[in-house]
Structure formats: C-alpha cells, structure tokens
Amino acid sequence: MSRQAQRKIFIFTFLIPTFLFFGIFTLYPISKGMYISLFDWSGSSEHMTFIGLDNFKEIFRDPIVWTAVGNDYFLVLGKVIGIVLLATFFAVAVTRFRIRGQQFFRIAFFIPNIISAVVVGVLWRFVYNPNIGFLNSFLSLFTKEQIRIPWLGEEATALWSILWPSIWAGVGFYFLLLVASILSIPPSLYEAAEIDGASQCRQFWTLTLPLIWEQVKVSILHIVMTTLNGSFVMVLLMTEGGPDNSTQVLGSYLYQMGFRQFHMGFAAALGVIILILSLITTVILQRVLRRDAIEYS
Amino acid sequence: MKIKKILFVTLIMALVLALAACGSKNKNDESSPSPTGSTSASPEESASSGALEASPAALTGDFEIQYFVGGYGDAWWKDVIDQFQKLNPDLNIKQSAGPKINDQMKPRWIQGSPPDLVYIDGAGSNPRQMIEDDQLLDLTDWIKEAKNADGEKILDVMIAQPEQYGGKTYNIPLVFGSYGTFYDKALFEKNGWEVPADFESFLTLSEKIKAAGISPYVHAGIYPDYILGGFLYPAIISANGDNGDILKDMGDMKEGVFKSEPVLKALNQLREVASKGYIDQGAPAINHTDSQMQFLQHKAAMIPNGLWLESEMKNDAPADFKYGFVPSITQAKGGKYIALPYTSTMAVAKKAKNPEAAKAFIQFIFTKQASLNWAEKTGALMNVKVDLEASKAGETAKNAMKYYNSDNTVVAPVVVFNADVFKVMGDATIALSVGKIKPEEWADRVEAAAAKARK
Questions:
Q1: CB distance from B220 to chain A under 8 Å?
Q2: In terms of CB atoms within 10 Å, which of A13, A66, B230, B336 comes out highest?
Q3: What's the pTM value of the predicted model, to 2 decimals?
Q4: ipTM given for this complex
C-alpha cells in the first residue's frame, strides 16, 4: 500500500464513522421529522394520513403558537442581555481588578452549570413557592403582612420568573469562556495602555471588548440557539406552560401536542418551525454581530 | 508510525464494535415478532377447544401482557400471572412491564405487533386515543356474557361499569377509586368545624376557616385534573338533577353541552368560591405535591384529590393527621353526594395473536379473591365489589367504600375526555378560578375545542 493510500484510509477512518453517526442521529431524524410534519398522525397509530401542509396552516391559525414564539424571543432576549452582561462584568472584575479569591468566584459561578436542569427547575420551584418559598419569606421580612405572591401562577410574573433561573444557571459557562479569553490578551497591551494614561473604563472599551468580541459573539449565538431549542426544559419543570398557556414556548407546546394531546404530525411541524426560526435567527445575528477582526501586535 | 498504527487499529475496532452493536439490536427487533409469528396458529387451537370457562387449562401458545408499574407496584401482577401460569402450564406467558413500558412498547403498537393484553395506566397512555387509533378489540358482546373464574357475571361484580365509546366497550376498568374533598378530622374537631354536607355549608365553613387565618381550599393548579374531578364534574352532575349522563355527553363532545345550564351553574359555583377568596392564592402555581404538602401542614383545610392521597403522602403526614373524605361539596341542600370515579382499564389488542388467552386472563382476575389480593398488595381498590372491612386496605378506601354503598351517593359514570378538549377545559378552569375569564367564555372556549375535535 502506498503512503498516499494509507493516508487516505487513515483519513476516512476518522470521517466515515463520524459522518455515519451524524447521518443516523442528526440528518435522518431531521428529515424524518419533516416527513412526519406532512401527516395527520397521532404518534401511536399504525395509520398516517397525508395532509400536505395543513399542519403548518393550522400552526399559523393557532394563537398559542404566537404566544409561544413571543415567549421564546422574550427568553432569548432576556437571556442574551442578562447572561452576556453578567458574564462580561464578572469576567472583567475577576481578571482585571485583581480581586482576591478569584478561584473561589470561578467555582462559585460555575456551580449552577454542573447542576442538572431538572434540579435547577425543582430548586427554583421551591424558591418561588407561594407559601413556603424562600422569595416570599424573604420579602415578608420587610412587610407587616405575609407576602404570598404566586410567582409562577400569575401571567404577569410567570415568564419573568422562568427567566431568572435560566440566567442564573447559564452565566457560569460564558463567564469561564470570557475569563479565558481575557487572560489570553497579552499583559503588555494593558501595561502600554496604562502608561498612556487610559482609565480602566477606557481599557475595557478599546482593549478588552474588541479582543474578546469573537468569544462574546460565540456566546450570544450559543445562548440564542440553546434557548430556542432548550428553554422548554425549564418551562415544563416550572409551569408546564401554564397558567392558561401564558408561559408556553415552542418546545413545550411541541411536547404538549405530540406526547400529551396525540398530534404528532402537528408537533413535528412545530419542530420544523423551530428549526427554521433558529436558522433565520442565527443567520441574522451572524450578520448583525459581524465586525472586522481586531488584532494588536 | 507505531502509534499511528495502534490508533488506526483501535479506531477500526471501535467502528466494528459500534456496527456490531447496531446489528445485534436489529436482530433483537426482528426476533421479537418472530415467535409471535410462529404461534399464529394458537388462537385457532384455543378456539377449537371450545368455551373458555369449560376448560381454561387448554390455553396454549404465547401470551404477552403489557402492564405499567407505578404506585400500585407489580406484586399483584406477578402473583396473579403466576397463578394463571399454573392453571395453564402450556401457555408461554411473557410480561412486558415497568414504569416506562408505555414508551418502550410504543414502537410495537405502531408497527402493528402489539401485546395481547394491556393494562392502560401511567404517563403516555390514553385509552381513548388507543380506541381512536383503532388498536383495541371490541369487547361489547363478550363482556355482556363473560363470567369470572367463580362463575359470576363480570359486569355484576364490578363497582364501576365499563366506559362506552359510541355505544361500544373496548376497555375493562380494573382499578377503582374516586375523587373527593379531603380534610383533616383532627383539625376539624379541634376547631369545632363541621364537615360540609352541601355547597351552602361549604361556603359557611370556608368563611370560618378563612377567618381563622387558614386557606379554606387548595388545589394543584398545574394539574387541573384535581379541581375538575373534585369540584367541577360533581357540581355539573348535581346541577343536572344527579344525572351523570351529562358527563357522558361531555365526553362524547355533544354540541352545546358545554354551554348547557348545569355546566354554567357549576362554573358559577366555582367562580363564587374563587371570588370570595376561599381558594388558596398560590394554587395556580403549584403542582399536586406542593398542594398536598400545604394541606398536610394545615396551611389549607380542604383539598380536592383522589383516594390515592393517603398512601401517596404516607411518609409526610404528621402523626396526628386523620384523613377525612367527602365525595362532593357542591350539591344543593339535601342533595345527594356525587362520587366521581377514576379508573385504570385493561384492554385486548385488536391485533392480539392470542385474544382467547387475553380474555381468559381477564375472567381469571375479575374475582373477589383477586380483588382482596389487590387491596392488600396495593392499598387501593380493584373494581370488584368486595367486603373490605376484614382486609388491609387503607382507612380512606374503607371510608370511601361506605359512601359508595350508601343510597345517598350517586356514582358518576367513568368518562375519559378527548385530550384536546380536556386540555382546553383545564386551562379555562384555571383561568376562571383566578377571575381571568367568565363562565360564558369558559363555555365558548371549550365548545370551540370540542367542535374542532369532532371534525
């Protein structure tokens, strides 16, 4: 066997299994999902009826879908702003301000990431519990009467109450990402800036931010994608989409329709909508966030 | 170079192993239908053996039973299947059971090679959907005549009769229980509160409890099943002159039934209770465990729930807690109690390979003896009338049984709602209970959902 052939075999041994698994576990389910979205199917029956695009028409007529889309983007926006701001702030504080106990903060912020989403959900359910919850007990310290706000049970507060735990659970990872990226900036740049008399604030805007922008961008995109695809976990754990569907997101509505109300075709169509929305949002964001790469040498 | 080679070999091995794993799985999948295929002759054999009651021992071939294992455990199942096996030594019984069995067996139902007999319970199961999917055998004629192993007619020994879909019977209720309103006898005695016998006394009592600084009524807003089963349905039946047929009409989604007067009257009762502040403010936000904890901690005095409550909260109840149960609290003065039953049912698959064995098994288990066995092994009630006093069934179950045997109690029919209608009904009920919508809007929403489901 020639070296060339050996090399090729070597390369293919890496590519083929990967592609095979990608095909089986990603491409096939996506195409199957698209296929099912064209059928009226209960998800448990032997029989499927082809109905073309009727599921999609139904989706556009369904007011809950529109609520869900709105809620999805509320969570996306809230999480992007909350997580990126907090993560950047903490990362700068830990790296640039030479705070004592850096190591402690790194671990402390990362802990929520190690906890599984289910535990986070249940934990925060207790925080929000109207009668025995931490939040109401805490607030009651400042009032004469016992506060008994059903945070997750009122339409005005329910979605906001899901947002905070999502931010809390998400900050740690992006915090570490940004810390690593700030630490990779050569210290000589900061020294030069200081000699030139740049304030900390100035240093942040002209040095730190441009140089970590790639990581910020990746963070934003990652938050957007994971939120659109995964926020249903928190919703299902904390409110099940209620009260009166006011906290429903597309993912939780998909689950509700597919596995509880036996409209698997409709659910698959919702899945296709989630896919399309994620793609569009990501592409738009890529454009919006594009900046010229900055390198100081 | 050597390292490269080792890496290469390892990768190849990994790939081969992965493929082999896939391959063997496929083989398994194929092998499971094949034994059933080979026994396709068995129904004929057993059919030729004549009437079942005459010689149940004649059963042969394969017989597969699917049962969900949840709060009731599997001790009873293992026991009765063991007995059935001893009676039919030539029958090859396969048990497909577990807490996730509904998901695990789903592919089999979709592919059209279901088990012979199924006990429908647990998440991901809905008998109504199985009927709509044309998966269950029509048992209408068979159940009319079927006798149990003791020679009694099965329909005669049942507490709740089988539900009917379009006049046909597909599933046989195995577990029996009922919704109702629970309270702590000890707490009531301590405060001198009287157990409500009708809606009026419920309101008076609630006012007293509220004045004492306790929430009169708490329910699990995340799962509206509780307030529907413990409050709204009984209220509707009471308002319909104690006639449970209206619930059947609701289940059948008859046009206009959700706008009918009894329904609106019941909704207004709920609205009254809500607007007077008798329902715990936190209710919409909490699930069943939260609401039950609140009840056990005396932060709420009454709770709509099911007979399983006592065993579910066994480890959490304070030592002096004494469960009290009243089937309904919404009837007019002097009106009868409405007991709203819930059941978990059994059914024979339409594509069962051995339906005779499945039917024989049903006949075998619908006996008083099996029922007592069930009560002792699970602490709950099986759907066969039996004297519980001597048994080890829970206090609540025994108390409840007294109500069912009383002339002053109407046992409502068992109805399983269309999943879409049920969801809308639950959402609307919670919305009504917080004053977001009016009863008329409730009716409009549910009528619209029913109209859509009828198509």
A1: no
A2: B230
A3: 0.84
A4: 0.84
